[in-house]
Amino acid sequence: MVRLGGDGSDNFIDRTGRGGGFGGGGGNMLGCLIPLVLSRFGIGGVLILLLGYCALQSFGGGGLLSGGGSPTSQQSSSTQSTLGAEDRQVLSGVLASTEQVWSNLFQQSGETYQPAQMVAYSNTDQSGCGVAQAAMGPFYCPSDQRIYIDPVFFEELQRRFSAPGDFAQAYVIAHEVGHHVQNLTGALDTAQRGQARSTRLEGNKIQIGVELQADCYAGVWAANARDERGSILEPGDIEEGMRAAEAIGDDALQRQAQGRVSPETFTHGTSEQRRAALRKGLETGDPAACQFNA
Length: 294
Description:
alpha/beta; globular
């Protein structure tokens, strides 16, 4: 079990139990999605695989989503659920730990890390990138620099994807924080520009590189996370993370969803690639090692 001490992050926002809503500003992210919007942390039923490639557009005043899951028509049953103490500890505690690690790493490069906020919500919420739905899975919105997650996702991660454990949950959070790091460093903007002038297949390859780097950044966090007793990782934690990385590979999800694999539609990397990216971050602890060209 990952050791998480302290009071958690001041950047954690609990909106669970409110039932969500569709009002407010921002675009509707469900209308037209591009590869950079997607992640394979989807929870709603069998994941929908994108076969089309939408024209690039900004959501809610500019920027792209990164992370998040493929949308489905199925609604989460979490409309009135509230955040339990254990989930709160994992969400807020891991976020606080990422803030400490990335602040130190940025400082070593002579820069200042600006933390992301994390919003825990039930069923639906409004993000700076449009409507957030539980069926999309966790995602990062560059427009408001916030991570959005319905905690019911963790139940789905264990039940549907056979990836239990608090380090598997921590990996998901750290992956989304990795997208925030990419936003701060300009990597997301570079990827967006590259996709704007690419074919669908080329754009997918760019997206795979983005996702693998976020996986690697999650490993970098875990390698550098410390408390007064040393590393916060305990026996079995790395194995939990590897199972989660394997479960969300494009090939694994496509076999589950459609019984076959279509490599030309991959946007997040195979199970093997995702495990390797996470392991590279864990073994090196160095953000500079997280360069991927799919």
